[in-house]
Hints:
Layout: E1 13-17, E2 23-27, E3 32-43, E4 46-50, E5 58-68, E6 71-81
Parallel strand pairs: 3-6
Antiparallel strand pairs: 1-2, 3-4, 5-6
Amino acid sequence: MSEGLFTITSNKTIKAYDLYGKEHQRKLSNFKFRASVYGVLIEDNKVLLKRHTAIGKLLLVEDSFFTYNGEDAHGILIFYEVEKIAGNLITN
């Protein structure tokens, strides 16, 4: 019997990575879906990333499987270009 497009089998494993880039083999059935939207502002060779709804040109959509604090997630990351309203970009 072949798997359907949206069939999750409990014995299927995939590669997931932690914050340090270490690879883990995890059961696909453990993963929770997580969507994120990021705004990207580039000014004078400085980049500001902001984790909120952004309006502008779509830059990138990426998915990743990761593990953090023992939890598994399938992340969809959406990056948009944003405009500066006011203020200056500084580095610390």
